Fold this sequence. Notes:
The complex is a heterodimer.
Chain A: H1 6-29, H2 36-55, H3 59-77, H4 84-111, H5 120-129, H6 133-148, H7 157-163, H8 166-190, H9 197-219, H10 224-251, H11 255-290, H12 301-304, H13 306-319, H14 326-339, H15 347-379, H16 386-389, H17 396-414, H18 416-429, H19 436-439, E1 447-448, E2 456-457, H20 459-480, E3 484-487, H21 504-507, H22 509-514, H23 516-519, E4 522-529, E5 537-545, H24 549-573, H25 577-599, H26 604-623
Antiparallel strand pairs in A: 1-2, 4-5
Helix pairs in contact in A: 1-2, 1-8, 1-11, 1-17, 1-18, 2-3, 2-8, 3-4, 3-8, 4-6, 4-7, 6-8, 7-8, 7-10, 8-10, 8-11, 9-10, 9-15, 10-11, 10-14, 10-15, 11-13, 11-14, 11-17, 11-18, 13-15, 13-17, 25-26
Chain B: H1 2-14, H2 17-29, H3 39-49, E1 52-55, H4 60-77, H5 95-115, H6 119-150, H7 155-164, H8 171-188, H9 207-210, H10 216-241, H11 250-274, H12 283-304
Amino acid sequence: MFQFDTLSMVFTALIVLGSIPNLFYSQGYLPHIERKAHYLLHYFTFIASMIGVVVAANALSFLLFWELMSLTSWQLILTEAKSKKTINAARFYFFMTHFGFVFLLLFFLIVTNGDLEMGFSAMHGVASAFAYPTLLFFFLVLGFLSKAGAVPLHVWLPYAHPEAPSPVSALMSGVMLKVAIYGMFRFLFDVLYPWPLEWGVLILVIGSLSALIGVLYALSEHDIKALLANHSIENIGIILIGFGMGMIFDSMHLKVLSSFAFIAAIFHTFNHMSFKSLLFMGAGSVLHQTHTKNIEKYGGLIKRMPVTALTFLLASVSISALPPTNGFLSEWMIFQSMLGSSHLDNTSLKLAIPFAVFALAMTGGLAIACFVKAYGITFLGLHRSTNAKHAHEVNFLMRTGMLLMAAVVISLMLFTPWYIGQFDAALVGLGHTSVYARLFPEGIWQLHSAGMHGGVVSPLILLGALLGVTALLMFGYKALRVKERIHRTWSCGYRTGARTQYSATGFAGPIRRFFGWLYKPDEHFHKESIAGHGSKFSDSHYEVHVKPLFETTLYDSVGKAANFMSYWVYRLSHFEQTRYAAMIFNLMLTVLFSYRIFAHEFSWATLLLEGTVMIISIKVLIIGEKR
Amino acid sequence: MIAYLLTIVLLLLIAPLLPSFIKALKMRLLFKKPASIWQGYRNFAKLMHKETIVSEEASAITRVAPFLVLSPLLVILFFLPPVVHGAYYVSFVDAFTITGLIALSTFFLMLLGLDSASAFGGMGSSREAFIAALVEPAMVLTIFSVSMMAGDLGVGQAGVNLAAHFPKEHMASFLFAAISFFILLIAENGRIPVDNPETHLELTMVHEAMILDITGIYLAIIETASSVKFVIFASLFASLFLPFGLDYSAPVAIGVFMLKLFAIAAAVALIEVNTAKLRLFKVPNLLGIAIVFAFLSLITFYVLGA
């Protein structure tokens, strides 16, 4: 029923590290929740079920806990179901998560031969005997990546995460998405092991796209929690880039580089858990005080909420992958593993991987822009609303939660070698080569790249050097005893006001304009001009909305197609029961025939015969005579 | 070790000289009466004696950020390739760390711009964020390509390898990478055509707009940071793309290195005199050229081996 190998334990540790600070935060948040019993019941079941998923040892318990995790998180989104928006978001999440579940179920039905209590290692034999392993791979990708939020199955995240109570968004974004990554590790390694090259390339492409698209939509977002949810898409993309590189190296028989890339992916999984939870907690505290998720209504909160501001700054620096933080270290490892691609003896791959390097570097640059925006507009400058003016620091329990999470971030930064040792052990447990000795050949001070002539980074020395130099400079400044005077900000002779500062929309303006072909922003600009002058106006109003491209194209058109088909069915059936029955009969026939064609050996003769039978049956039973 | 420390001190000392030199050269080329090349030091001395005025809307960030803008750049100075053959150098630090440290400095500079609640600060930060986001990929790709030619990802080691064995057989990709890196040098240091450091019009400022509300020692620190950044880029360009002259005796080698820095500064001045500042939305075209050259460099290296 349960297993406790190193991979499971590593991910259990992830869940525990993500949950303990959250418990404190959640306790502090509790007075604001009306349905306390409902919330607590689902909250604890949610955490327990996530642990259940990562320690499950057979398909049945895995699916049980997986479904329990989905259902409890769905109920948690509905905790404060006041608006129609929340209910729609929860419904969308429910649909997307079960869309993925169907594929997982199909996967397990095939690889277990119907015996759902079979262990994972026993599935390997069944899977390798199966004629279409790529189909199984696609089931896994659809099943897990719809949960993890990779392009193009990511659209639910920016809706579901903002609507949940903040501790829950922190758990969902920080921890639940990682459970899906665990699923990828577990089943790709245990069940589908020898991977063709194309799988790795597919994961790499999905990862690069998710990273770029996530960060671009995050930049255009004004809702702080939706912004963070979009960043989850980006970070899942980065994890998948590492994962994809690992798969590519493995299928090219570069075992050491492969382990290195996988370790980078797990490390980034941990890092994302830590800083994303912290960011969601910070956003939750701000939301708690200002009662709005709109980033344009914040400002100047650093003076009112110093603890929140400080922890949010730490997380922002870390998620922007700036040295010497943990986010930088894992992105550094992913970069180094990509630079290892120069050892591949496949020229087209060698030429293609720099494009992924480009995507990752671009993501890094845009993430910096996005977090300068998120931090600067939220915490710096003047307050932009009365609520922001009267905000004060959140209660003790919530602060404790944030500080504990900050401690997790710092521990990942300081004890990198120890964590990497655990990840290495997990990969060895999955049958990969150990690379710990190659990463730390000269003790814990320097982290080496696993590639030939790779780079080296020394997180602790960097941290020490930065702190030391900054302290020296500040000490020098103090020693000079400079006179300090406080005066108004200069703004061309006018008074500085909350409305004259740069807004979040304005901050992202250049980037939004440059990527206008992707955003296709919906702009509303209205001004009351004075006496017909173009440039003189008494009042003006500007609004911009960006609807994600994937939603407008992929999802809406699927909806339209479904509508069209149902209309067609309605036209054919005319509310006659016999015709409905005939349709169901034909559908079953199609399923049976396609199963036959697909699961057993393929022959053109059967296809032809069965196709003819189908056509006759449709003509006779459904369409009937022409009226 | 002495040469190593001496180089760092020397680089710090000439840091304010290079921007003043560019300015003086530009003025001479425009038939104006040139400003003194010591103007950088004079400004620094003047600012050190002033009181600091802090905006009343400013928070703790304004008091901390100037130090955090300068300190990553000072740390980078320790990681640069050696200028004298056989001198001590930190071989292991790779280009991502250096790019990351520069980004860390820019991150705090952008926060500083937003802190004083001034419209100009926000404007500068927003533009800087836009430019920095596009510089990052070009930078990573260029350095990737150079490190392939040098055979090592560590910047210090790459400089030594290139000096020991100039990549004549990879001349094409080497040149492409050099062009790309030079564009990045201009973009990252806010020189014309990306940004005009001497502008008096707030609406066209990028770097200057972020620090409009900074005075006194804080301003001195930020100005030092921007000149140190120029020195870092110039010496990276000198060590990676002009890797000669290390074999002479230590004083001559250091002299040659300084000459290279001044030659790069002169090239920047010539470009500044001959081009107009680009509109902000034309800047991506220039950076796009840098990105394309970086890709070209990698592709010629892989496919043609040239």
